[in-house]
Amino acid sequence: MKSKLQQEVGGCDRKATRRNMLQTAGLGGLSLAAMHSAPVAAQVEYTTQNVRRSSRPSDLKITDLRIAFIHQAPMRVPIIRIDTNQGITGYGEVRDGGSPKYALMLKSRILGENPCNVEKLFKKIKQFGGHSRQAGGVCGVEMALWDLAGKAYGVPAFQMLGGKYRDKIRLYSDTTISRDPDEYARRMKARLDMGYTFLKMDIGINQLRGERDIITAPLGFDWARDRDTAHPFTAIQLTDKAIDRLVGYVAAVREQIGYEVPLAADHFGHFSVNSAIRLAKALTPYQMAWLEDLVPWQYTELWQQITAAVDVPTLTGEDIYLKEPFMKLIEARAVDMIQPDLASSGGLLETKRIGDYAEEHGVAMAMHFAGSPISFMANLHCAAATQNFIALEHHSVDVDWWEDMVTGPMKPLVQDGFAAVPDGPGLGIEIVEDVVREHLMPGEEYFAPTDEWNTNRANDRLWS
Ligand SMILES: [Mg+2]
After folding, report:
1. Could you tell me the CATH superfamily of domain 168-424?
2. Distance 136 CA to ligand 1 centre (A)
């Protein structure tokens, strides 16, 4: 039988051993003694590894989904936060301009599920997505699932998608329109001077609004209504004057930026296919990288007609949900390039699949993006893991607090027209609460409870 002293010493020993074990686990397997004798750089590396060794991925369960709705980024963006039973939190976002309800209605469908089963959950919820912003909930949740799975296993999202083709992602920047061609050209040149290696400008009939003899349209034409009327049905035709004016903007920009940097164009307006072909032909000498959304993406045959008629690359895709419509466009050789928006096309994995399909058919993939740094990170991982990627859009060059919303990767996120692919687990970022709080939409709360979305009585099955 042990004496009282022996029992106390033994107890102390057991406590000391347990404390040592905990310290060792917390230091990533390095004992405290070894840690103290290691070089400072190694100590820092061990203590800053953002690997959650407490996570048990097989037992991970989703416990909550909440929203923080920001604005002026420059877009309105509902940020999604998904919580779990192990204290791991994942972030995603509904596509810019979309309703948070697209994500909230998915909450009851994913509560209690293991977020690491990303593909299984995507197949469960993808029936609740539609084209453009209607896909925002499904895609935003998918982003958050990759973030959670990566944090649970301690690997970055690009690694789960198959690894990297590149360490940094080429960006192309949007630039604010000016109706003065010389001022517009100066703004484009400023982007080039910032280090951007790929540019895009907007040229369209809206810029010419108020001028005489620009368009031929049914008299009394309503510009506001035109916004919701698809191109073939507006009966708008461009006059030669309009084509000269639009080409004049591009000529002024090319004069400033030269011909070595790719220059794409978008936001032409809603006019007929014949006018689109005339405009595209007039732009041929200016070596455009692509002309975007000359007609809505659904009109495969109209796209075929335009693409066959002109020598300028054509592109569409930012509003397409899921791979199948992209397959149709690609198989019909209807466009020269595609441009999915990951927050509409189905999230990281579906967008990689879209890119892979295009690649097999010799079609390149640019990526459309206009959200917060959360979706931006999701895009970086997908772009890194997809071989035929060309360039990712960046809409927030002029928003000075945009990068401050997140912490994690090296700052600045964007440098010389590129963004480094983050190496941290999941998407590789955490939210900076103060900054997000400061830029919430008026009347919105910071990740307020959403208990009213916990249950539903719907039968979601699509077949009998
Ligand atoms: Mg566009």
Report:
1. Enolase-like C-terminal domain (3.20.20.120)
2. 17
